[in-house]
Design brief:
Blueprint (H helix, E strand, L loop, with lengths): L3 H7 L2 H13 L4 H5 L6 H13 L3 E6 L2 E6 L1 H38 L1
Antiparallel strand pairs: 1-2
Length: 110
């Protein structure tokens, strides 16, 4: 089963980049992330809120800010869902190919 909220959260390229940055650095704050991205700190904070609601990041207080870390279990769940969706589409495409080949063969026999 695909979690639409999860995929909506990671569907945005800025949020995917944020996840990459958090994974690479082992965590970060809205301020540290905004220094690496072409968006404002306020925009980063909003994106982090979306990721947090989807369960992809967890936060802890860090002075006047919050420190965010990727929830690796939730990220692994997203990867598993992607693999499942990919497998389903591969099966559909194989069926379409077989149907197209059968139609082509039937047309050649006529």
């Amino acid at each position: 089963m695909v979690d639409d909220d999860l995929w909506s959260a990671i569907g945005d390229p800025t949020r995917r980049r944020m996840l990459d940055l958090l994974l690479g650095a082992g965590g970060g704050t809205a301020t540290t992330l905004s220094q690496e991205l072409p968006v404002t700190r306020q925009a980063v904070a909003k994106h982090l809120g979306v990721l947090d609601r989807a369960g992809l990041v967890r936060s802890t207080p860090a002075g006047r800010e919050r420190r965010y870390r990727v929830d690796e279990a939730q990220l692994a769940r997203a990867v598993a869902q992607l693999a499942s969706v990919g497998s389903a589409w591969d099966a559909r495409l194989r069926r379409i190919k077989r149907i197209a080949e059968a139609i082509q063969q039937a047309n050649q026999n006529d």
